[in-house]
Amino acid sequence: MALSKDRLIGRKAILLLLSEDPDMQLNQLKENNWKGCIGKVGSMDAHKVVAAIETAAKKNGIIESTIYRESHALYHAIMEALHGVTRGQVQLGSVLRTVGLSFAVLRGNPYDKEQEGDWIAVSLYGTIGAPVKGSEHETIGLGINHI
Amino acid sequence: MALSKDRLIGRKAILLLLSEDPDMQLNQLKENNWKGCIGKVGSMDAHKVVAAIETAAKKNGIIESTIYRESHALYHAIMEALHGVTRGQVQLGSVLRTVGLSFAVLRGNPYDKEQEGDWIAVSLYGTIGAPVKGSEHETIGLGINHI
Amino acid sequence: MALSKDRLIGRKAILLLLSEDPDMQLNQLKENNWKGCIGKVGSMDAHKVVAAIETAAKKNGIIESTIYRESHALYHAIMEALHGVTRGQVQLGSVLRTVGLSFAVLRGNPYDKEQEGDWIAVSLYGTIGAPVKGSEHETIGLGINHI
Amino acid sequence: MALSKDRLIGRKAILLLLSEDPDMQLNQLKENNWKGCIGKVGSMDAHKVVAAIETAAKKNGIIESTIYRESHALYHAIMEALHGVTRGQVQLGSVLRTVGLSFAVLRGNPYDKEQEGDWIAVSLYGTIGAPVKGSEHETIGLGINHI
Amino acid sequence: MALSKDRLIGRKAILLLLSEDPDMQLNQLKENNWKGCIGKVGSMDAHKVVAAIETAAKKNGIIESTIYRESHALYHAIMEALHGVTRGQVQLGSVLRTVGLSFAVLRGNPYDKEQEGDWIAVSLYGTIGAPVKGSEHETIGLGINHI
Amino acid sequence: MALSKDRLIGRKAILLLLSEDPDMQLNQLKENNWKGCIGKVGSMDAHKVVAAIETAAKKNGIIESTIYRESHALYHAIMEALHGVTRGQVQLGSVLRTVGLSFAVLRGNPYDKEQEGDWIAVSLYGTIGAPVKGSEHETIGLGINHI
């Protein structure tokens, strides 16, 4: 039942965002049988961040959009990642702040045991702050769910 | 007022945790005039996680323990990092879950402008789950504050 | 001071929503000296859910709209019921989700003792999910307050 | 992708708790290919409520205890149900209140489509209040997750 | 339905705590037909803060302890005041912090209209911080409820 | 490291709001080397409350608007004060309520020790309630941060 050291889905999802060359790293993951995608979104609306990630995940075939259980798994992973980014209230513009984020969605089995099946990780990294250039600091979030 | 690309304190604090050789990387940061420390803590009590980080930061001279404003800055950075780890309620054993975490505390000025002074980053990475071996997944958190 | 088994206001308010024939059941409650009303509301705006329930409760004379203490009691019961529905952040469209809800408001004394006076129960039952047909699951909430 | 009117898992899980004869109703559900169990727990410790439900679900074979994804699904359903019960902070004794709850765990596919697979519903109904007999009112919670 | 300028219950409850001579001010309020009491509590346990206020309010006859609706009104006013003190999570020792508080409970009708009946205000003022002398700053909270 | 009895920044910031003659009291504080300002804001949008306070603080030179660390300190003090005002979810119009607030921002060193440097206090006092005249009660909030 243990996590596999070589298959730490959260670690991989975060390193993807912090990498110098995310595209190359994503390709490497795909060669190792991971499904994944990366993207960027900047907004004062939390719902636009959610929508950007959902759209990317569906468009890149990370989740099967006609099956609700897959969207449900992804949605909760996104919300959990947003907790790390917002640290208290999952609110942006309504409390006068904005984000500029890179995101990654990764899908695969991080456990030794085959029966654990697929899990999904959503990672977010970027800046949060006032809607004034430079008035911001870094922020990160990670959500992990079974799918 | 902008963040300096070479001095992204949050990114550095997280990479420190995900590194193959954290000690070497920490030494490298110190040579570049960052203050920092790393450590590990596993507990079902959130207050023990807070205490472990505070103790390490004071013992390693990251913050000046006789000045309350420094402890205050660190405390809020820890709490913000814990939001990412717990994603909803900053509670562990009281909702029957436990964490095994690495942590890093980093101090320096991540901005181009000298007047921005020192900031502090607290990063957390590890596992969260039921108090049963293997019943856990990864988790991450980052808190950043001016000091 | 104990709750009366025959007068469990929360249980009654929920069964009203889950009933095959809510109107008949509501009439029965009214014959037994309960005040109550039922309604439906679908929205991505939490404030529209609040408004729909408040309007129904005032229009049906469940609360006296010229007395603030009655509105205050109802408002907090609604907010508590919304916690059950939203499970974390009392937000809908701002985190890209929508609800389709039935609601009931019931007023009466659920306790053996007369001095306990009137209490108000707000129950909510329906679906919550993405703004995509079928991408939703059920949800319930109950708020109870003295009035 | 729509919810099946005859297979509303949340509605069934709640009616189970509010029924006059829960055991009979549970048997009927089992005959219709649902997995489920019911139980009771009273405590000032939220973690004891979590543990009681997890133990019952494992003992009754509702979830497979050797597969973490099943425990993970159940845990989050329990936590969501506790949000409805606690309405704000998932805390009991630490804010001087106690609960006396019935619980039900139900497992099956509530959707028309077979691919949606199994979902799990955790329902809670009982009283919450001061640790003084009679100083309490009713409370309800429902958590639903894919499994 | 408006608040009466001379009878602002929240303002009075806070000024009571900040006064140079709280006892004299409390007596003056009592002469003007307010019920009220003041007290002090220091703890790392939120439930001890709740208990201290409830005990003082009952002992001083501010609420009628045999009627649950009165305890219920007071409890929610206390919890709301604690939100102001804790600003995020209603937790003290579990996140390694402690409080030293003065509290006041005041009861009366702050509205022009007689039908608004009695309301209750709970005010808290003091310090919050690390369990180290001097490592603390001020904090305040106010909860108001109909009774 | 102790708080100085004569320099309790939170107490001063609140008394400023509750004073009969806030302008005079503010002038007195300025003569004693405090920086401060007062203002009023009424809104259903939390972000307008944040903006009003930030604008006043910058315009009156309480914080240096070209240095992000100062805005950062102020922002978190405002958010903490809003927790006291909203008591649960930092939301106004989105849950159908509105505020009418006075605010004060005060800056100075409340500690005996010079090294503690400047701290900032944001106090809020006014009413919160339904967007219907008179359907409201008082509310208060205080946020304190090092700057």
UniProtKB/TrEMBL annotation, chains A, B, C, D, E, F:
UniProt KW keywords: Activator, Histidine metabolism, RNA-binding, Transcription, Transcription regulation
Pfam families noted in UniProt: HutP (PF09021)
Subunit structure: Homohexamer.
Family listed: Belongs to the HutP family.
Chain's role: Antiterminator that binds to cis-acting regulatory sequences on the mRNA in the presence of histidine, thereby suppressing transcription termination and activating the hut operon for histidine utilization.
Protein name from the UniProt record: Hut operon positive regulatory protein
